[in-house]
Protein: Methyltransferase domain-containing protein
Amino acid sequence: MPEPHWMTETRTAYDTVAVDYDRLIPEVVEGPMDRGMLAAFAEQVGRAGPAAEVGCGTGRITAHLRDLGLDIFGIDLSPGMVEVARRRHPGLRFEVGSMTDLGLPDGGLAGLVAWYSIIHLPPETLPEVFAEFHRVLAPRGRLLLAFKAGGCLDRLAEAYGHTVSYDVHWHSSDRVVDEVTAAGFTIHARLDREAEGFDRGPQGFVLATRPGGGTRA
Ligand SMILES: C[S@@+](CC[C@H](N)C(=O)[O-])C[C@H]1O[C@@H](n2cnc3c(N)ncnc32)[C@H](O)[C@@H]1O
Structure:
């Protein structure tokens, strides 16, 4: 099947902006609530097994989670972003791939984080992507999502100083929670917060578990 147009546009855009994305957002700029979600995810996954950041971009969040103790690698659609990530964080593994078809074995991950990467998914593709996240996570594996919340669409013509053309979807938090639940996850926490810093609107965060395999807090 040919690649959907939105995916080609997203890859092209991030290949174009990769070096300047890294220059403008070199490390973790997230505030305390967002870092709290990352810290909770890191503590829950611990050393239970490998974790992946899907849509890792330049690897700044992958490196942060590594520093919090995770055995983590990154996957991204954009070869340009992956090239920057490999240069910036030579001790970490980064691969080119899409969250629509991760090419990972069933049940091999203890944690999966998608930090502002589902914002490029058309809403109708959320079920298939969350099914893919469920497939690659082990029972009791943890899922963390961060996204721009709202339920509208931005068509970008300029980003990080470049002319581009791609979509940013502000997903409805309720819809994300519903789709994550429908894919078979148990929701542990959701955070809907107002804009702060450079945010242009509210932000959503969801922490969930793939059930099964006995109990764990
Ligand atoms: C806003 S950036 C976030 C990058 C990183 N998580 C961070 O917080 O700096 C979105 C990233 O998602 C990636 N992405 C978009 N669609 C993707 C897909 N279908 N599969 C994998 N990565 C994707 C883009 O290439 C881009 O690097």
In short: The domain at 5-210 is CATH 3.40.50.150 (Rossmann fold). Strands lie at 51-54, 72-76, 94-96, 109-115, 137-148, 152-159, 162-170, 186-193, 203-209.
